[in-house]
Amino acid sequence: MGSTKHREHWLELLPYAETDRQREYIEALMECGTYAATAEWLGVAERNLYMAIARIKRNAARHGHAPEHDMTKTVPDGYTVKGTSTLYDDAGQPKIQWVKTQVDHQRQLEMMQEAVQALCEDVKPRKARPLRLKRQNDNLNLFILTDYHLGMLAWDEETRDDPWDIHIAEQLIYDWIAYSIEHAPDAEVGVFSQLGDFLHWDGLTSVTPASGHVLDADTRFQKVVRVAIRTINHVVNAMLDKHNEVIVLLAEGNHDPSSSVWLREMFHHLYKNEPRVEVITDPDPYYCVEHGNTSLFFHHGHKKNMGEIDRAFAAKFREIYGSTKYSYAHMGHYHHVKVNETSLMHVEQHPTLASKDAYASRGGYLSMRSAPVITYHKQYGEVGRLQVRPEMLTADD
């Protein structure tokens, strides 16, 4: 059996084991004391045991625990150690140590997913709503909302555009869906295509996830989350009143990669008892909806540009692309209209309904604001389009 000192050493490493097998190795080392005895007892190669413990130690070091190198200042879950500086006394003992940390993005995503799972345990799925509409046809209405940047703050004197804050954004989405539902043609299927960057930022700090650029934020993140859930729920319920089937797509954007995860999972859970609602939960940020002889593809635009996206979709969805005659790709990200008709499909980049922020205004990005509803037929592809602009929603009757 291992000595008390050895048992304490392994006990300190136990929290950094990432698998059940790794935890089994550490517990066995606590009992057996040596690698040779442990390997023999477990019936594994001693080399494999060494490699497993080395992985655990590397994980511990990322979190600041490596006593053999005088690293004992650990960092909270969700962060990793970027570097340390240690001042030693004349006897060679550590006197003062500075620990530099950085965000562990992968672990923060895992923590977000764990939080979503816990949240869903308390979310009661909605009961199925009776089908109110008897009419059926071969149409699909595609409601496109992209780069809404909920939580953004825009000062109209600075941007020469309408002001923007959490209250304005919430009311505008209600007005948009009400107008769109009223004026769009009848359709059997409705698709809510939220093409990414629905939230302006992705956590407690209002910065871009990848580059850390400081963003103009209107409010606290928890309030943004509340409004996001409330508005999406309102949109889905409004679409259920018009369509017999509703498909919900909440795409990943570059501003909200983690938040798009919990939004998809939460709404999937919320509507799991409603057979008329399908929430797309694909983790890959490329999405597809098949409607008879028409295929619709979606991607925010942060990973592939318009010149490459048609080939990416055709490759990722070979069977659907090959079996349909009319193919359309929809993207956002750049906040302005751009259309590209390729030999594979019609590719369209959509504008945003949101106001410009200071970054867009200072950069001279002055595109028109809108959010369309496009109608597709099962056999004939696109057959109609409703273009909705903010001024249409506030104009006098």
Task: Report what the structure shows.
By secondary structure, the protein is α/β, with parallel strands linked by helices. The chain has 2 domains: 1-62, Arc Repressor Mutant, subunit A, CATH 1.10.10; 127-394, Metallo-dependent phosphatases (Purple Acid Phosphatase, chain A, domain 2). It has helices at residues 4-13, 20-32, 35-42, 46-62, 105-122, 156-159, 166-183, 221-240, 257-270, 309-316, 318-323, 358-362, 390-394, and strands at 79-88, 94-103, 139-145, 189-194, 245-250, 277-279, 287-291, 294-298, 326-331, 338-341, 346-349, 371-377, 381-388. The strands form 3 sheets. Strands 6-5-4-3-12-13 form a 6-stranded mixed sheet. The chain has a 5-stranded mixed sheet with strand order 7-8-9-11-10, with helices on one face. The longest helix has 20 residues, at 221-240. The protein is globular, with a radius of gyration of 26 Å.
Beta-strand portion reads 15-25%
Which CATH architecture of the largest domain is right? 4-Layer Sandwich
Specify the CATH class of the largest domain. Answer: Alpha Beta
CATH superfamily of the largest domain: Metallo-dependent phosphatases
Any low-confidence stretches, pLDDT <50, length ≥5? none
Largest sheet: 6 strands, mixed
| Computed CA radius of gyration, to the nearest angstrom | 26 Å
Structural class: alpha/beta
Number of DSSP strand runs: 13
